[in-house]
Amino acid sequence: MTPREVPLGGPRAMPVRRTLPQRHRSLIGAWCFLDHYGPDLVSESGGMEVAPHPHTGLQTVSWLFTGEIEHRDSAGNVAMVRPQEVNLMTAGRGISHSEVSTPETTVLHGAQLWVALPDADRDTDPGFEHYAPEQVAGDGWRAHVFLGSLLGDSSPVATFTPLLGAEVVLDPGTTLVVPVDETFEHGVLVDLGSVTVGDLDAKASDLAYVPTGAQEIRLVAGEEGARVLVLGGPPFGESIVMWWNFVGRTHDEIVDYRAAWQGQITDPDSGEVLPDSRLVAPGRFGVVPDQPLRPIPAPGLPNARLRERR
User: Fold this and answer.
1) For residue range 36-77, what is the model confidence (pLDDT) as tens digits?
2) What is the average per-residue pLDDT within 166-181?
3) Cβ(108)–Cβ(141) under 8 Å?
4) d(Cα 200, Cα 196) in Å, to the nearest integer?
5) What Pfam family is a match, any one (predicted)?
6) Is 63:123 a contact under the CB 8 Å cutoff?
């Protein structure tokens, strides 16, 4: 699967390359969204400045290769996203957060991923976890396992469905046979270089899909080596409706989420976005503390009803 370029974060948007969702594939396990960005010179791109915005029904997974981003959310969590350290935010019934690259960051390069929450857990309390996995290594390869288990290592980070997430770096020409759970479907996102995944040739920003039934995934790095993210999970088994920053189950739920966010951040008289969302009741999504950036208003809904993704 090849990416499409989309803007991220409102008027001063930075470009990202998106491989999930696509028309013919919406999920890999519970993974429902995958953005890949950089390496970008902050002096040219302006870096990341994503003002407060809402989420429901999902977990965000932030993974950096280069740079540093400050995360703030309405549950009171303030944390840095750094290379080889995962930040997992649970939106549950509703949260808002901001993501801003630090002044010290000169090059920004990473991935932003979402995980759909199952119906039984999608209204859970908001939450946050940070984890810095130790490196595991072998002949011609190195890995950091940030979710699930792979290559003899396991992450303690809790998820609501079984998941796999790992960064794997391969030296030029290295062949690595990775044992995997045959009940999982997998995706291999190529960050740098090129790699053959089974019989699929993939270059930077491509996402190779491996269906259930595979007991191993064979990775062969090209002559320049490769860095990849290996993602996986059992088929999600539920339909979702995903629009803007929300994951729900019906069109009408999304309409309600949008209305709740707009009602929270706009002046009821003028309809303008307030400079500080603390000026109104925090509502479903709460308020990001000590964040002067104006909240991002939701775009207009399409004329047609939103369709289910399976």
Assistant:
1) 999 999 998 888 999 999 999 999 999 999 999 999 999 999
2) 98
3) no
4) 5
5) Pirin_C
6) no
Number of structural domains (the chain) is 2
What is the domain extent for residue 128? 1-132+239-310
Residue 294 and residue 288: Cα distance in Å, rounded? 11
CA distance linking residue 187 with residue 233, whole number of Å: 9
How distant, in Å, are the alpha carbons of 29, 30, 55, 146 from that of 115?
9, 5, 12, 14
Q: How many helices (H) and strands (E) does the chain have?
A: 2, 23
Task: Give the pLDDT confidence score for residue 276 in this predicted structure.
Answer: 61
Q: Where are the beta strands (DSSP E) in 213-278?
A: 216-233, 241-243, 246-248
Tokens of 87: 């930040």
For the ranges 18-22, 43-47, 117-121, 293-297, the lowest mean pLDDT is seen at 43-47
The number of CA neighbours under 13 Å toward the Cβ of 276 is 6
26 shares its domain with 4: yes
The dihedral built from the CA positions of residue 151, 190, 62 and 184, taken in this order, carries a sign that is negative
Q: What is the DSSP letter of 127?
A: E
Residue 195 has pLDDT above 60, yes or no: yes
Structure tokens belonging to residue 221:
């790095």
Question: pTM for the full model?
Answer: 0.95
74-111 pLDDT, tens per residue? Answer: 999 999 999 999 999 999 999 999 999 999 999 999 99
Average pLDDT value over all residues in the chain: 94
Contact status, residue 75 vs residue 128, Cβ threshold 8 Å? yes
Does residue 255 sit in the same domain as residue 231?
no
Query: Can you give the CATH number for the domain in which 253 is found?
Result: 2.60.120.10
pLDDT of residue 282: 74
Residues 260 and 272 in one domain: yes
Q: 302: which strand partners?
A: none
Count of CB atoms situated within 10 Å of the CB of 67: 24
Find tokens 């950036």 and name the residue.
293
Domain boundary among 209, 237, 265: 237
CA nearest neighbour of 105 among 80, 85, 134, 87: 80
**Do residue 114 and residue 26 come from a single domain?**
yes
